[in-house]
């Protein structure tokens, strides 16, 4: 039976102390105001829309802008590592690209996906004002991800035979494996960083992460230059520097959480309760991991398949440039993905169905407009963007030829990741995982093989087929989101938080 609106919203009408210590209506004054504006049927529709847009855009950009910068800077560190490698030679550029896209993205997708469980639980718990649970979720996730990192390390250790098994040439596999060995410490940095990142984002505290990442990026550039050129450590030096930079970010953010008064309600120190309920957390994390991994691995497979084409070095170099640009701009979408997840999770946890729905469409629209602008700029620079990576004219021509496909991918990226963020905020990870399997691996991948090899369209055919799968997934997520009953989603969020609260209480009694 659907709860009455008064039952859902009554707790929000009582002023309480928020996590920063200031008194506000439910600790989320803007959210409450947004729900009130959207519920005021006596106000003309256009005025309601205008007022609601002002409130939501203010909330959105305070969260999305620093989140975008964090993801851009973190990706720029990886991108700069490949650029430093590319200046050593075309083989080194191809090896760094293969090691990054063929091996490292496997760990990135798995760990980030598992960390998304924290995003769902912390976002909804913060909206429901169950602040003490955020620190427990953070620690529980860090434990699960650190344990997961151990078997992943074996993939890195045996990366050379794995790449040979996948059909890569011995010289390419050896060079890529050397690059990957230096990334092993990065796996464990992921295990700590992603839960911390989601913990901060759930509270709309992102700016400190931006400053820490920006400072680390400066250090990273200096160390990369020293390791690659002054100490002549080549690919291994470049990747070891990247690992060290990620650990600097982890230490910086950890110190900030432990020392700042902003977290006095959400971080109460290390707690033995984090070791309880791990299996339930693993199950939720697994659904998140499958959802994101299926997306991350999809374009990872594109790079691996390109290595099987005639003249694979040229194909990999051109794809490395395109994927580097795509990955960098994708961080803008990932920033909005985080904003969508937090906004929707907070609103559902707070019992604001109208505000949740409005947030979804507002963040999707803004992200799409930005993606169109990005695509226009990239297309106008299609003849010169490759020179940031390598000086080869042949690669530049190939990149220019692939640029229309890059533009379509960028436009889809303006919508698809945001809707995935909505799914995380709502806890739909398992559903999206099934959609991804169907669209990516039953439609997109076979279509890419057909166009690329049977019709002899090469890398353009492979990429075109995979765009078909991405487009189908985007349409399905748009349709599913449009049909969502947001009142029902509020009920589901309440039940989920009550379940985890019961788990905590049972642990306290032991």
From TrEMBL:
<feature type="transmembrane region" description="Helical">
    <location>
        <begin position="171"/>
        <end position="193"/>
    </location>
</feature>
<comment type="similarity">
    <text>Belongs to the multi antimicrobial extrusion (MATE) (TC 2.A.66.1) family.</text>
</comment>
<dbReference type="GO" id="GO:0015297">
    <property type="term" value="F:antiporter activity"/>
</dbReference>
<feature type="region of interest" description="Disordered">
    <location>
        <begin position="1"/>
        <end position="28"/>
    </location>
</feature>
<dbReference type="GO" id="GO:0042910">
    <property type="term" value="F:xenobiotic transmembrane transporter activity"/>
</dbReference>
<feature type="transmembrane region" description="Helical">
    <location>
        <begin position="431"/>
        <end position="455"/>
    </location>
</feature>
<protein>
    <recommendedName>
        <fullName>Protein DETOXIFICATION</fullName>
    </recommendedName>
</protein>
<feature type="coiled-coil region">
    <location>
        <begin position="483"/>
        <end position="510"/>
    </location>
</feature>
<feature type="transmembrane region" description="Helical">
    <location>
        <begin position="461"/>
        <end position="479"/>
    </location>
</feature>
<dbReference type="InterPro" id="IPR045069">
    <property type="entry name" value="MATE_euk"/>
</dbReference>
<keyword id="KW-0472">Membrane</keyword>
<feature type="transmembrane region" description="Helical">
    <location>
        <begin position="55"/>
        <end position="73"/>
    </location>
</feature>
<dbReference type="GO" id="GO:0016020">
    <property type="term" value="C:membrane"/>
</dbReference>
<feature type="transmembrane region" description="Helical">
    <location>
        <begin position="399"/>
        <end position="419"/>
    </location>
</feature>
<keyword id="KW-0175">Coiled coil</keyword>
<keyword id="KW-1133">Transmembrane helix</keyword>
<dbReference type="GO" id="GO:1990961">
    <property type="term" value="P:xenobiotic detoxification by transmembrane export across the plasma membrane"/>
</dbReference>
<feature type="transmembrane region" description="Helical">
    <location>
        <begin position="134"/>
        <end position="159"/>
    </location>
</feature>
<feature type="transmembrane region" description="Helical">
    <location>
        <begin position="233"/>
        <end position="252"/>
    </location>
</feature>
<keyword id="KW-0812">Transmembrane</keyword>
<dbReference type="InterPro" id="IPR002528">
    <property type="entry name" value="MATE_fam"/>
</dbReference>
<feature type="transmembrane region" description="Helical">
    <location>
        <begin position="315"/>
        <end position="336"/>
    </location>
</feature>
<feature type="transmembrane region" description="Helical">
    <location>
        <begin position="93"/>
        <end position="113"/>
    </location>
</feature>
<feature type="transmembrane region" description="Helical">
    <location>
        <begin position="205"/>
        <end position="227"/>
    </location>
</feature>
<dbReference type="Pfam" id="PF01554">
    <property type="entry name" value="MatE"/>
</dbReference>
<feature type="transmembrane region" description="Helical">
    <location>
        <begin position="356"/>
        <end position="379"/>
    </location>
</feature>
<feature type="transmembrane region" description="Helical">
    <location>
        <begin position="289"/>
        <end position="309"/>
    </location>
</feature>
């Amino acid at each position: 039976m659907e709860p009455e609106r008064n039952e859902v919203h009554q707790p929000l009408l009582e002023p309480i102390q928020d996590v920063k210590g200031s008194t506000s209506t439910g600790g989320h004054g803007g959210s409450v105001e947004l729900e009130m504006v959207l519920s005021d049927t006596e106000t003309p529709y256009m005025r309601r829309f205008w007022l609601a847009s002002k409130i939501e855009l203010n909330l959105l950009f305070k969260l999305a802008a620093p989140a975008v910068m964090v993801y851009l800077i973190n990706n720029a560190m990886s991108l700069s590592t490949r650029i430093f490698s590319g200046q050593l030679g075309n083989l080194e550029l191809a090896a760094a690209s293969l090691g990054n896209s063929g091996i490292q993205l496997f760990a990135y997708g798995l760990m980030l996906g598992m960390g998304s469980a924290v995003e769902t639980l912390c976002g909804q718990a913060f909206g429901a004002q169950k602040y003490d649970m955020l620190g427990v979720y953070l620690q529980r996730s860090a434990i699960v991800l650190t344990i997961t990192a151990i078997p992943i390390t074996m993939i890195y250790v045996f990366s050379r035979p794995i790449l040979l098994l996948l059909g890569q040439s011995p010289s390419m596999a050896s060079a890529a494996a050397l690059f990957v060995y230096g990334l092993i410490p990065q796996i464990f940095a992921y295990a700590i960083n992603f839960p911390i990142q989601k913990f901060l984002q759930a509270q709309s505290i992102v700016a400190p992460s931006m400053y820490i990442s920006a400072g680390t990026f400066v250090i990273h550039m200096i160390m990369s230059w020293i390791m690659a050129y002054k100490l002549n450590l080549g690919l291994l030096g470049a990747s070891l520097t990247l690992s060290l930079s990620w650990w600097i970010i982890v230490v910086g953010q950890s110190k900030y959480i432990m020392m700042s008064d902003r977290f006095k309600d959400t971080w109460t120190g290390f707690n033995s309760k984090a070791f309880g309920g791990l299996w339930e957390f693993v199950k939720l994390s697994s659904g998140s991991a499958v959802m994101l991994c299926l997306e991350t691995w999809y374009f990872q497979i594109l790079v691996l398949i390109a290595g099987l084409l005639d003249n694979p070095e040229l194909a990999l170099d051109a794809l490395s440039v395109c994927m580097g640009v795509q990955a960098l701009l994708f961080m803008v979408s990932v920033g909005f993905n985080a904003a969508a997840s937090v906004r929707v999770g907070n609103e559902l946890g707070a019992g604001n169905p109208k505000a949740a729905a409005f947030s979804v469409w507002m963040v999707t629209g803004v992200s799409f407009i930005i993606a169109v602008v990005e695509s226009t700029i990239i297309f106008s620079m299609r003849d010169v963007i490759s020179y940031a990576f390598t000086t080869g004219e042949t690669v530049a021509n190939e990149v220019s030829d692939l640029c229309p496909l890059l533009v379509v991918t960028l436009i889809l990226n303006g919508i698809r990741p945001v809707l995935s963020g909505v799914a995380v905020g709502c806890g739909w990870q398992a559903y999206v995982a099934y959609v991804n399997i169907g669209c990516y691996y039953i439609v997109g991948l076979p279509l890419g093989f057909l166009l690329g090899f049977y019709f002899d369209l090469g890398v353009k055919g492979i990429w075109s087929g995979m765009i078909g799968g991405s487009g189908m997934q985007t349409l399905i997520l748009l349709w599913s989101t449009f049909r969502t009953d947001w009142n029902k989603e509020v009920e589901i969020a309440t039940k989920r938080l009550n379940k985890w609260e019961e788990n905590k209480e049972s642990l306290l009694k032991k």
